[in-house]
Amino acid sequence: MMDVKRRYVIPGDVIATGPLRPEQNVYQDGDRMISTCVGISEIFENSVKVIPLTGGYMPKANDLVIGKVIGTSPLSWEFDINSCFVGFLPAQDVFGRDYSPTKDELKQRLDIGDLVATRIANFDRSRDPLLTVQDRDLGKIDSGELVEISPSKVPRLIGKRGSMIQTIEMATKAIITIGQNGWIVISCEDSEGLLKAVEAVKMIDALAHTPNLTERVKSMLGVTDGENNDTIND
Amino acid sequence: MVKIMTQLMTEDGIRCDGRRLDELRNISIKVGVLKNADGSAYIEFGKNKILAGVFGPRDVHPKHMANQDSGILRCRYHMSPFSVTERKNPAPSRREIEISKVIKEALQPSVILKDYPRTVIDVFIEVLQADGGSRCAALDAASVALADAGIPMRDLVSACAAGKVADRIVLDVNNEEDQEGQADMPVALMPNVGKITLLQLDGMLKPEEFKTCMQTALVGCKRVYEIQRKALMEKYFQTGEQ
Fold first, then answer.
1. Using CB atoms, which residue from B57, B117, B148 is nearest to A125?
2. ipTM for this prediction
């Protein structure tokens, strides 16, 4: 992975020519690889991709997303997942197999406006995304602060192997749940830590494309440089 | 007729606003000017002042317009009542409906709608001040706004008009030249793909004149593209080119 070439691109820019595989946000025109969005292009050994800097959330199977209940039908909940598609959570997923619409009341478990950490079980272009809460750490979110950032900046918030998010969590003692759809729930017992964590997340959203972001976040949080330290400057 | 021509252009080819034959008006583009839109752009193209906002992809209403196989693109070009010297009725006129359609069709080849079935991308264009060639300027702004919204596109769309004024082919026809001149030809181009997505002609040109007019317009489109590119680079990468 050492020979990755990065470049700033806008739609229509030719990233490379030759026998390469177009991956996300790249399309092939003859042997030219063309960017389809504003972002940073990366050329690997045999593939090309563009990391977008703008744009909404496109659901993908297995993504963890934070959804907001916007409605119910007799057999399912409807979720706003910050995307152009509405997420569906079948009632059986929560009540179990013996769910009966006559006996069980959906709104007792999840009411309109509730925030829920869910995973996308299935999504293809013919149907709206199907959600599930059948996993560890999924389910209704009872407390915390919701922060919205651009979905294209979520990878930056997580950082390489979770380095960025670990830095914030350690410095502020907050627990951060990141939805791939750009909705983030931050909970922290200490109100000052909560404010700092919120500020850090918003800062990453604003400065996602700039280099040395980890350093800037560290200095903002008052973390002194060094391995694995969690001291806070007051 | 001779009198008008001398007004529109001096003998050594200087036009009524002081430009040379192949000179564009001043163009500046600002990206991301509307807070509530997913993508937006503001363009000043000479005295044209135009805002473009993009919303979506989002749910289609009315539902029957939705396409199961791909997204749809809707476009609204509107002139503010104060955009011209005489107050314009804010209701969409025949001309505005035509331009909305033409802009939609000029943008459609560049936008990759396949990835967003059952959704719509709305483009709203508001002309705050009009001064000839507003459809080209509107198209330039709309294309940048679409890129700002992060909608997948094959290429930007750059548009520029050329025309015939006082028997000579000129680039970027302004309002006076449009009114009094002999021909006005708006052209939109996807510069990297090399495809023309809009070609209209109001007036009459000889076949050879058409060819030069086309070449002139294409050169103009490429210059507009550089400005669009710079505007996007400034917004996203601040320093411009890496």
1. B117
2. 0.86
